[in-house]
Batch of 4 targets.
Target 1
Amino acid sequence: MKFVKNQHLVILDVETTGIKAGVDKVIELYMLKIFNEEVVNEYYSKFNPQIEIPLFISNLTGIYPWHVENSPKIDNEIEKIKNFVDDSVIIGHNLRFDLSFLNYELNKKNFNELNNMTLDTLNLSRALLRTKVKNHKLVTLSKYFKTINQNEHNSKADVLTTYEVFKHLSLFDEIKNNRSIEEVNKFLNSTDSNLKNKFNLQNIPTSHGVYVFSNNKTLKYVGKSSNLRNRVNSHLSHSRSYKSNKIVNSSNNLKVINLPNELISLIVEQRLINKFKPQLNRSGRIPRNIYWIKLKSNKSNLEISKIELSKNTIFQIGPFLSYSKAKNFKNFLDDRFETVKCKKNNSRKTKCDISILLNSQCACIDSFNLEEYNYNLRKKLDLFFNDTSKEVKRLNDKLNAYSKEQNFEEAQKIKNYISLLQNFLEFNIFREKITSFDKQTVKILENLNIEISNTRVNLKIELSDEDIEFLKIRPNNDTIINFYSELLLILRFIRNKEAYTIGR
């Protein structure tokens, strides 16, 4: 291992409550410090995440809430962690994931991020073992190299396995004679020589835009980037992912289109995916339907409908861009207002089994007054949606109470309700601002080369005749579903990029 000689190496691995830094938390960390193939130090700790550990995570890692209830918070250990790493070369498997969590915690405490030299065994495996293993999971590599440690999702075992895998990968001819980490990473990020002549890589800009991989006239994959050159090169590098490998192997043509900004790139990407439905794009497609939650005068149950305007509707809310979102919100309202769960037929003298089981009112009994019930429910719903701030406060109070009681199951339920309500309100308030041409919102969109008119998102872009012919897209979308989907894209973008308050 010439390229790491006389350098301190820190091999690390974290276990977490989920996959998103800032939302999920670290529950375990192991670090092993190596110098010239000798262990010189180690660090290990479990952490109390102060949030619920999902059951599937506990089953995966073997770490249950009672294992960490007396463990330190990572906040109190983060300086020690940073000092342990110091200026060492950091090695890990899918290292970007681990560092995203550690750097988040460092930022919280106003420490500098870990900007050390790094080497990712996942990238090494992709470059050196592409045709030799079925995937590049750590357990797969452990079996391939016949290392001793093959346990997954235990930080200490994963670190020991990562180190063994790293030593085996370092013996490959492609990298063993490199003189530095920089040279190894340069090799990993460089374009695979087998792909250099396959695609036209001349004059790819470093600007915003979309790129399209295709095979003759069939689109295989559509992507967007704020730096087209870097993103395209990542698909063609020696360390390209399994998905990127599928994309380039199934394609024989590459097209890039320069666009004014990131948001327009997002919208154009979605429109292309929706129009052409490329085989290798799993996300970005516009939903087929939108949904509404309704209360009808002739029914006792809240129902989900694809039709915005329908007969007998006395109350409705929406739109929802998926059936699952509508269903989850309906479940929240059913729980909040203890609505009837059975189907009305007024043929019984006693409550039905469903109402007894769910402890709800019963529409089946002949004494049930549908008109009165719907009048009262509608009144409650009107009051609720006229002032939702009270409900958000009520839910937050319940969340705090359940958290203090360590009733994590109920706390998670309330947390989900808060998220449902806030997301629904945020989107609909934004929709109102858009359609009423709120000055602040209009100004933001103008600066982004976007205007809204007649329930359409208009993009102020200039495409060459060649681009128009190739893509066959128009500047305007054409359905209300497209419109709502693009509004959601715009909302998420400006919420993250602009000092913009989504509120009444």
Target 2
Amino acid sequence: MANKKNNKGNVKIAQNNNNGGDNGVNSAVEAAAMLTTTGGSSMDRNHQVDLLKMAHERFFLDENAAEHTGFPQGTIDKLNHINALGIAVCVCNEVKYGTSDFAVVIRKSALPELTEALKEIGVSFDNTKLLPSKDDAEAVEVTAEAVKVSEETSKKLEEDAKARAATAGKVFDPTKIKDEEELKKALSGFLAMNRDSKLMDSVMQCVNFYKAYRSIEAKRAIESAEKTLKETKDKEYKANAEKALASAKNDLERIKNMSFNDVFREVVNLTGRVGTLVYGIGAHLFNVTATSGSPVSAFCELRDHATDKNTGVCKYTDNQIADVVKSLVIIGADEVRSSGMTLLEKENNLPEKERIPSHIETANKNIAFADKATAAVLAAPGSFVESLKQNFLDGNNFAKKTVISIKRAYYRDVAPEMMAKVKPDSMLDNATQYAGIISNLFRNPSDPLVGYAKENIIDLAFKTDEEIKAEEEAVAKAAKEAADKKAAEDKKKAAKGKAKAQVKK
């Protein structure tokens, strides 16, 4: 956005590869040496322009995406959900902290997607206050008056604003963090930057920074204990120092071997639910995974979101993206499961005759939904991959969305007009390979799905002009035959109706 020019909100050091060979302290420290945060509770005029530009790019410039893929526009719009969430949070911040003359223009066909995104973060539209666009009959103008922010979301936005304000313009170095409170402040500020950074940047930098700080903390404890052992002759002091040294070495080893999910869980436990956009996107990835029973679409959506739109390059590895998806889905699942268990416990504590069956049913459904998502990111099912092509051909909605998400994640360099010429089998076979490769990122390395590898992905095959012409002629012929058949049937029905009328006379 506009402030990219001065690099506000960006990390000053190269990104960490959390899957590096050593998985150790040095890589974590090196990669997360500093975090720089920005504050501010509302958008200035430049940022309002940025928001309008973002909405235009996401909801207007891609209005022909249906033609590019062969699917209904509604299906295409669904795949812009992460971007819709980003815009939704920007809108909410502006409604809460901005000016009364704020307005953003949205294409009517994209309005349901934005409405759903707002709903996921506890916000709704007052449709009676949506204004028709003065410049476009197919668009509406969303003003501050049309947006209703729930009390809970309002509190979360306030927490985000406080976190940003507390760290505005500060540079945090893990070697200089004084205590847990300062660590919490740094991480909260970065997670709360709903406007200037992407999800992957926020989560990866928080994980790297936290791991770096804990590693430095453990190393300092080791150095202190070793110094005591070297300098003191007191037996009691030596004994305590030996215990401290062993404990610090265990801590350092634990930190080295912590999974990405374990580290991020500790970050969340420390910061709480700061970062409306982070957890809004997390809830979306959870819903996508639980609904489809596979993490493939969620992975592709996040990869697409993390890809530079100008260069087409994603600076994160597939393993890193999978780590973030897994962490956010598990956190989302745990929350839904906990709510379900609480509701179930509440009902079971009542006398049997006072229990409400619908409440119990809802609780059990939510628990099962959460379990399905957790199972999918811990052991992605092979059945989803194996049946992807056939399910797509049969018109299965999940399969369609998955193939489209794979196209967006891995084929953004293919021009729309060329994508329309791709032979279906060519795309579907490659999509199946990608689905298998992605699924293996969410399975135990000792138990991979066999037969899926990047080497198996071939160049897309394109239809010739002659083949396209033949297809068009076949479609036209089939349409004419169907129309002729219907006309003949209508004529026959009309004749029968006329004959019956004559008999009655």
Target 3
Amino acid sequence: MTDITQNADIEMNENHLIAERREKLAKIRDEKQVAFPNDFRKDTVSTELHKACEGLDRDALKEKGMHVKMAGRMMAKRLFGKGGFIQLRDKAGDIQLFVNTKLIGEEAFEEFKTWDLGDIVAVEGEVSRSDKGELTVRAQTLRLLTKSLRPLPDKFHGLTDVEARYRQRYLDLIMNPETRETFRKRNLILRTLRNFFDKEGFEEVETPMMHPIPGGANAKPFVTHHNALDMEFYLRIAPELYLKRLIVGGMEKVFEVNRNFRNEGVSTRHNPEFTMVEWYWAYADYQDMMNFTDELMKEIALAVNEGENAQIHYQGYDIDFGKPAERMTVQESIIRYTDDAKEFDLNTREGVAAYADKHDIHYDKNDCWGKILMEIFDEKVEEQLLLPTFITGYPLAVSPLARQNDENPLITDRFEYFIGGREVGNGYSELNDAEDQHARFMAQVADKDAGDDEAMHYDKDFVTALEYGMPPTAGEGIGVDRLVMIFTDSESIRDVLLFPHMRVK
């Protein structure tokens, strides 16, 4: 049988099942005053019930006399004579229901027999245990709340149907408890982030998502048009320049959990829109930020592990966030992770160009020392940074918003934070010299005129803000999606986005 024939047969069978379910719904509409009731209120969920009944046997539960109201989706049904069992799935997990004619009556039982997997039902009953010791709700009343018109997949495995998981996330959430757990942890991580910043005295703020001038990162923006103002706007690529305006205004500690948009490639690591947490701290430097990041990651790890420890397992190796991340410069990392880097002077353009030529690493003939150095780093080092690592000493040429190092004018007080062979965060001591910022913006404009569509625009108002004076400040941004990937051991960014962007079929 060909795939086309098989798919046609599957579709025909599904259409038949849908037709049967529509007939059942039509009958419900005829017989019931309300086909989709909304008067049921539950008082517990499966995890809470399992926890409350832990260690209690059937006799103990009978003595306790627990009466519950629950609702969820019917995932399995077993009938035997005048009785049966239901596997009920709610937002938290599964619970078994026992149903028989003695408890709910023959009429209700006959109605129950016609229900289908996927239907959403409500139950009221006493908590007990089955003969096999499984926690069970003995249904005293059972109601159909929502008729499911489409049959659930017989087998809905994420590993064998990855695209369907992403395109029909609602099915993925219904069928795969591990997916629901991933997004529970995502919520936990975001809550932990906010609590940590609040504890450290940061104020949460909101900045515009549509910018008249794109800025804050080297990236290609999405462009839109505002009709009333008759002008182009750019979807936010980063909130940085707005957040630093707040520092100028006297808000000394600010953070924002924000959505950013970059008109770039789609991969297991990139989505056109993504979530970041970005924060700025007056009277702090990039060293303070690295220390802060170590503490933040430890806090998240403890939250994910329910306080037991700060260790996680990610893609085949163990990470202990209870220990500070390693720190090294760009040049030190190249020397550590390559065999022959010591043979070249990585502090000169001639040296890095010679190394790049030997290893066939592409760079433009007009590229300066810093840009060639970073091409080497990206090619040879980044994917090898598996354990938490801060890379410092970033060249001035690739850091237009970072403070110049006091001892070496070719580098900045900047770091990037790597885990699992990918950049997770970026931070630095902020440039607060208005004249220097003006000069760097002009250099970015020259790069844009030369064909670099990711180079920054000149932001006159931001330079004006700096002219009023910004205190010494450090800032950092961490990609929340990549963070969730790490703490849920997810291979692809699409696994941690409820609705990842995909090409329309």
Target 4
Amino acid sequence: MGYGRVGGSGMYEQLLKTIGSLGAPKVLVAGDFMLDVYVYGDAVRISPEAPVPVLKVTETEYRCGGAASVAADLAALGAAPVCVGLVGQDAEGQRLKGMLADLRVDVSTLHEAPDRPTVTKQRVVGLAQHRHKQQLMRIDREVADPAPIELGEEMLRQYRERLDGVDIVCLQDYNKGVLTDLLCRHMIVMAVEAGKKVLVDPTPGRDYTKYSGATLITPNRHEASVVYGLEIRTVSDAARAARNLLKNLSLEAVVVTLDREGAYLATRELSQLVPIKPRTVYDVTGAGDIVLATLAVSLAAESDYLTAVHLANIAGGIEVEKFGAATVSRAEMEREIARLYSTRNDKVRPLEALLEELAWRRDRQQSIVFTNGCFDVLHRGHIEYLEFCRSQGDVVVVGLNSDRSVRALKGPNRPINSEQDRAAVLSGLESVDFITVFDDPSVLDLVRKVRPDVLVKGGDYGKEGVVGWDFVESYGGKVAVAPLVKDKSSTDTIDRIRALQAKPV
């Protein structure tokens, strides 16, 4: 049993190469197509009639759920999804088909059932303190009974017709009555006979025999625990469960997703944990969908299983930082690969690249902290100052004065260290996320472009002495003044060195 490593230039190059070779595979998606409805509002007070929040509705949003979410994820990754399944002959079904069609998903074989409603999950979401989204309730409308035999036969006929024209098959099973045991077995056999890989996101249950003969299944920790009959608490537990499923179901691969620990991959040749770096989990809704979609496009491009799971981990990590079931693009994955696998020197960004990165971070509800300075001859005061910056938000950006601007501010004998050297030293600090070099003596223009949530300066300044304070507060940002470390400054350090040099030996 091996334990994979996150990092390394070889993996960096391999992942980028795979992303670049994904192409536009045709992927057949069969399973439970659902409509997700989000009702947003402000939870402004508690009802006098009962101890429940009163929601003042401000917005209603519709998203693809279940197998529809997989199709949307595939489209965002550049694939061409083809749908086989059921929706109701109702307004919700029409809305879902329209949403998928707008994403250029083929819904021509998404059957409208007159006697079954479209599976709809309505989530009521309140804003805590007018800022943070918090799910208050979920309302499900569904019929989960097995689909009538005639509907199953019709779906199987449509599936057979579309099979030759696709590169790979995804089965998304939410146990809503579409992927019955018989239908699932027939779909897998047909695909295997046609030489197509079949990837399955299984439903929780104790019997997975209906997935026998598939290429790969992706149970999460809970699902694998149920079918294995033992709670999976450790990586060793996951390994045993994965190998058991691999053997008993005659699969090529099993991927057990393990939340913050990553995913456990078992194939006929290897058994290994594929870890991920820790990150903020905002909402796990849709994480399984994006994992399935990423594996599908990767394997359709003839990626090896290990690389495909690495990419699925990355996509899943991005998705859980978003609210609700959300798509992930190739560009987002490329940025995340660079963040996870590249060297510390990638912290130094030209302004345009920095602003693009910060926009991406804001989309993930991350707060931006900005400070600036010369940081010449780094000392204890600098370290504690930057650690204070770290305590103020999620992403710390340092505006670093160029050599020319330092000379303009401090005279012709400064800086002692070049801007390249100063940037390299700052890059080695965990408290600093990004550095951008600026040339103007005043930092105001840079502050206006970065638009930080928190602007930090040292304690030798009053708030009104901080350049850009009024601009930052104008849009609701915060100005924070860091405490000074007594008798610690670059000038004092340089003066002491020069005094020592002047003493006779």
